[in-house]
Amino acid sequence: MTLHAELRAFYEARQQQIPAEIREIMRRAGQELADSGQADRALTVDDRAPRFTLPSATGRPVALDDLLAEGPVVLTFYRGTWCPYCNIALRALQQHHDAITACGARLVAVSPQIADESLTLTEKYDLAFDVLSDIGSDTAKQYGLAFDLPDDLAAVYDKLGFDLQNVNDGHPRTLPLPATYVIDRDGTIRWAFVNTDYTTRAEPADIITALDTLD
User: Fold this and answer.
1) Which tens digit of pLDDT belongs to each residue from 9-57?
2) Which CA distances in Å does 20 have to 17, 26, 110, 164?
3) Where are the alpha helices (DSSP H) in the chain?
4) What mean pLDDT comes out for the span 78-103?
5) pTM of the predicted model over 0.90
6) Which of 40, 72, 174, 212 is deepest in the core (most CB within 10 A)?
């Protein structure tokens, strides 16, 4: 099953469990974000990848420059462990991790959540790649991905018990768009997936194809 098919099946089942008024708030917020044009303003192919150093789930600093010194990098941004679509996508990337590393690349994931949340995620799904904490979404902002939740959607997330105030260390409203980049050793973005729809993610097979085309 492709990641797209798995996400779509989950979405359709999930919709049956969410009250109509909440579905409408989510739909409206998603449409407003799509209409904002932010995805078109995010970094894309041929842009230079902004450098960063972020803590891993164990607190170890991880620098993009150090990763690029070893080869190309697959950089994926996700919302957090509270987001089931993110968890499905990260599990799919783990399933393709060997194929990614066989291309000589390093995979790294970035979210605005605290390291303890990333560690829980890493251990739960036995992730073999680094999961980094971008508190305040400063790195996501450099890539043009950070946005603020509207009031009504933020209230819905609170009612659902996501507790973004805690897991995002005092930055509950700011999240990244789902995005995945393939960055070559020179630090240039060679492939990009950016979407305002958090139920849609980069297909691992497409990432591997992009890696195969690198010089």
Assistant:
1) 999 999 999 999 999 999 999 999 999 999 999 999 999 999 999 999 9
2) 9, 10, 32, 23
3) 3-15, 20-35, 38-41, 64-68, 84-95, 97-102, 115-125, 138-142, 151-159, 164-167, 204-212
4) 97
5) yes
6) 72
Least confident of 100-104, 108-112, 156-160: 156-160
Alpha-carbon span 63 to 152, nearest angstrom: 36
CATH number assigned to the domain covering 3-212 = 3.40.30.10
3-state class of 127 per DSSP? coil
Give the pLDDT confidence score for residue 1 in this predicted structure: 87
Cα distances (angstroms) measured from residue 126 to each of 18, 20, 61, 150: 30, 35, 20, 34
113-122 residue pLDDT tens: 999 999 999 9
Which residue did the predictor score with more confidence, 44 or 159? 44
Q: By C-alpha distance, which of 108, 109, 88, 113 is closest to 175?
A: 113
Distance of CA 9 to the CA centre of its chain: 20
Q: Which SS3 state, helix, strand or coil, does residue 180 take?
A: strand
Only one residue has tokens 């946005």, namely 147
Single-letter amino acid code for the residue at 81: T
Residue 145 near residue 194 (C-beta atoms within 8 A)? yes
- Give the pair of three-digit tokens for residue 135: 């508190």
Note the residue count of the chain.
215
